[in-house]
Specification:
The structure is a single chain. It contains five helices and no strands. The protein is an all-alpha fold.
């Protein structure tokens, strides 16, 4: 889970630096880590999407050590709008 959170933070900070998301969005992503349920649900959703898109093989998705987190970073950047929406919805529900 730590690798996922660290990679997500890198993606968010890089996107903010390029003006793709706001600093408030970065803080929203960073605050989500304090809610384990949110991070678990988010990680599952992102990993499922990566498998569907062919970015990860199903076997790699089950074993975090199999994931190339640097390569995964680019995929996370593309998903940031969906990730922010997911965090907003799940934080309201829980």
């Amino acid at each position: 889970m730590r690798e996922f959170q660290a990679t997500l933070n890198k993606a968010a900070k890089a996107a903010a630096k390029r003006g793709e998301i706001s600093e408030q969005d970065v803080r929203r992503i960073q605050r989500a880590r304090f809610r384990p349920f949110v991070m678990i649900a988010l990680r599952r959703r992102v990993i499922d999407e990566a498998v569907l898109c062919g970015v990860l093989k199903p076997a790699a998705a089950a074993v975090p050590e199999e994931i190339d987190w640097d390569e995964f970073l680019a995929f996370l950047r593309e998903l940031l709008p969906m990730i922010l929406e997911f965090i907003q919805v799940i934080m309201v529900l829980f």
